[in-house]
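lol forgot to send this yesterday, sorry. struct tokens for the thing we talked abt
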């Protein structure tokens, strides 16, 4: 049954998933007042990147190797996002005495530091990233995001490796 799904439909589903994830992030930020830390912002970049790649694949609807290229790019975006989310989850589970000190805001770092240094500091995370402010079914936001990235990576990998029906 899964084999009969058109590649375009699968890519549209991935793009819709990214859109729903970003709408949920906007709800958490603007309605619940949960402001994102630098690692959360980095994860959002990869959710948007994966969603845009999937949307582009759905619109382009390539034949042959193009389908696999888009799938591989979606896997890559999800894997990078999962790596950042995994670091975030790791920081949240550190003992309190091992949590790194809180750093300056992202806006301040972007204004005063070279981009490469800012990127390094953002990806390392800080004490703000170690705090858990909200959970759903016992999972923190980074844990939920990690599960989302893993699911998207699995679907994208399947999309990359599957044999396509001939028409």
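and heres what i got for the seq, position by position
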């Amino acid at each position: 049954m899964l084999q009969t799904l058109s590649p375009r439909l699968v890519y549209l589903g991935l793009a819709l998933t990214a859109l729903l994830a970003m709408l949920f992030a906007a709800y958490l930020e603007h309605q619940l007042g949960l402001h994102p830390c630098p690692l959360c912002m980095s994860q959002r970049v990869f959710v948007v990147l994966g969603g845009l790649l999937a949307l582009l694949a759905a619109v382009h609807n390539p034949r042959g190797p193009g389908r696999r290229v888009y799938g591989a790019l979606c896997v890559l975006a999800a894997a990078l996002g999962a790596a950042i989310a995994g670091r975030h989850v790791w920081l949240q589970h550190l003992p309190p005495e091992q949590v790194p000190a809180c750093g300056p805001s992202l806006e301040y770092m972007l204004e005063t530091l070279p981009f490469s240094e800012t990127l390094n500091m953002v990806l390392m995370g800080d004490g703000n990233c170690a705090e858990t402010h909200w959970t759903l079914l016992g999972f923190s936001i980074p844990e939920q995001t990690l599960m989302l990235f893993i699911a998207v990576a699995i679907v994208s990998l399947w999309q990359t490796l599957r044999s396509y029906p001939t028409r």
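Strands lie at 135-136, 139-140. anyway ping me if u want another try
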